[in-house]
Design goal:
253 residues; Rossmann fold; 9 helices; 7-stranded parallel β-sheet
Length: 253
């Protein structure tokens, strides 16, 4: 039990499935109150809230379409109001927004990818900082990707560039916000079996599995422990500005 997470207020974006859902439930297991954000998957988000309630925890359902980054600050405000405060922000929401080779990337795709994967992170974090600072400090954890280091798979170069931005934004935020008592880190998952890969061809998934040293695809729960670790002051209080790779040894920086 990470006792210092008990009674913390956590907002997890993109928490209706996959890594976000596992993280939200993981925080609740350690006594945190969780704001479960979703964009379109209301049923999935309600299931996460129900799972937290079944654990005896406190959860709030928060909807915001983060492809419009202007909604991010209102999302943060609603989460803080519902939970009574905000101590931890996990910027997990993100998507490829479609695969296209370089010569087919257009302004609409670029804008969608950057709005969801980058601008919403900036806006949500800017809204969260004064709330977290009011609590005497806390943590922001961004979710990057192995794609941010290796350039991404076929048709995902635009997404890879957005995640590379998140990796370096994390380092910059860590420097800028340390004086406010806020640690900022990121995780960079590799191939994780989530709805993100629902349309990935089976042969591509098999090739990615075989590219890992552990010879398996990751699960959302494989990411939860690292998120809890980075959120816990007692476990990682001297860690900031780091990108933790979770990829079964597929990529070793």
């Amino acid at each position: 039990m990470l006792t210092d997470l008990k009674d913390k207020a956590v907002l997890v974006t993109g928490a209706s499935s996959g890594i976000g859902a596992a993280a939200a439930i993981g925080f609740a297991r350690h006594g945190a109150a969780v704001a479960v954000h979703y964009g379109a998957n209301a049923d999935g988000a309600r299931e996460v809230v129900q799972a937290i309630t079944d654990l005896g925890g406190k959860a709030a359902l928060i909807q915001a379409d983060l492809t419009d980054p202007k909604t991010a600050s209102q999302m943060v405000a609603e989460a803080a109001t519902a939970l009574g405060k905000l101590d931890i922000l996990v910027n997990n929401a993100g998507s490829l927004c479609g695969r296209k080779p370089f010569m087919e990337i257009d302004d609409a795709l670029y804008d969608n990818v950057m709005n969801l994967n980058v601008r919403s992170v900036i806006n949500a974090s800017q809204a969260a900082v004064p709330l977290i600072e009011t609590q005497g400090g806390g943590t922001i954890i961004n979710v990057g990707s192995i794609a941010g280091n290796d350039g991404g798979g076929p048709g995902s170069g635009h997404y890879a560039c957005a995640k590379a931005y998140i990796h370096n934004l994390t380092r910059h935020m860590a420097r800028d916000l340390a004086g406010r008592g806020i640690r900022v880190n990121a995780i960079a998952p590799g191939v994780i079996e989530t709805p993100f890969h629902a349309a990935t061809p089976a042969d591509r998934m098999e090739a990615m599995k075989n590219a890992t040293q552990l010879k398996r695809v990751g699960t959302p729960d494989d990411c939860t422990g690292t998120l809890l670790y980075l959120a816990s002051e007692q476990m990682s209080g001297y860690i900031t500005g780091q990108i933790i790779h979770i990829n079964g040894g597929q990529y070793m920086p």
